[in-house]
Design a protein that fits this description.
single chain; alpha+beta; Phosphatase 2c, domain 1; seven-stranded antiparallel sheet; six-stranded antiparallel sheet; 13 strands
Length: about 240
């Protein structure tokens, strides 16, 4: 059996923020800061394909630089991401690279980004650092797979770890795990600009739609709820074909 992924991705600055500090990556495609509509792709998973959302830290310098550099390095490394250890090592290298960039350029001091992603292929590997999220929707049930790096209790926007984000080098401890490639399941990767606007029931209702329709509906609901942050969304639909 061959697994085929139908993927739709979109990123937008939202209603309030002056610029978009998020970056989305699907395979070797990296999102521009401005998109007019979702980008759809159909990929046969004969080799590892990375899908990820990087959310540059608001309130810090150069959040858009941090998220784009993380996305570029992740996309370049994707052929070698065949195990949990290789994914964790890649994220560690990205973190180190961001700190080196800050040391070289004072204008980037303190820049950082969250990251959430999945490696699609024979072995499905998920990963995250920060509070961007990965959900799996299967048989009508929505499950959060990623682990939020936030203090316990109500959400405050405070992170306990991210890529970069400090003016001194600090190692990261990525959350990494395996993910069953369940046929006819949906995966949602998103920044907190979506999850801060919508509850799980709204998200689940949207994920019952085809990928591009799901992305459009999720974005529309987030905007109607206020759109106070950048919004980035990737919806992956997995299908097994003989």
């Amino acid at each position: 059996m061959t697994t085929v992924a139908h993927i739709s991705a979109f990123t937008h600055r939202g209603r309030v923020r002056a610029r978009n500090e998020d970056t989305v990556v699907v395979g070797d495609w990296i999102s521009p800061p401005h998109m007019a509509e979702p980008r759809a792709a159909r990929l046969s998973l004969s080799a590892p394909v990375v899908c990820a959302v990087a959310d540059g830290l608001g309130g810090h310098r150069a959040g858009e630089v941090a998220s784009r550099r993380a996305a570029e390095q992740l996309a370049a490394a994707s052929p070698g991401l065949t195990s949990a250890d290789s994914v964790a090592a890649c994220l560690g290298r990205i973190n180190d690279a961001l700190h080196r960039a800050m040391a070289d350029d004072p204008a980037c001091a303190g820049m950082g980004t969250t990251i959430v992603g999945v490696v699609l292929g024979a072995r499905m590997i998920w990963f995250n650092i920060g509070d961007s999220r990965l959900y799996q929707f299967h048989a009508g049930e929505l499950t959060q797979v990623s682990i939020d790096d936030t203090p316990a209790g109500p959400r405050t926007g405070i992170l306990t770890q991210c890529l970069g984000g400090t003016t001194f080098g600090r190692p990261v401890r990525p959350h990494v795990g395996g993910l069953p490639a369940a046929a006819r399941s949906r995966l949602l990767l998103c920044s907190d600009g979506l999850t801060d606007m919508l509850d799980d029931d709204d998200i689940a209702d949207c994920l019952a739609l085809p990928p591009t329709d799901a992305v459009a509906e999720l974005f529309d609901l987030a905007m109607r709820a206020g759109g106070v942050d950048n919004v980035s969304i990737i919806v992956v639909s997995l299908d097994e074909r003989a």
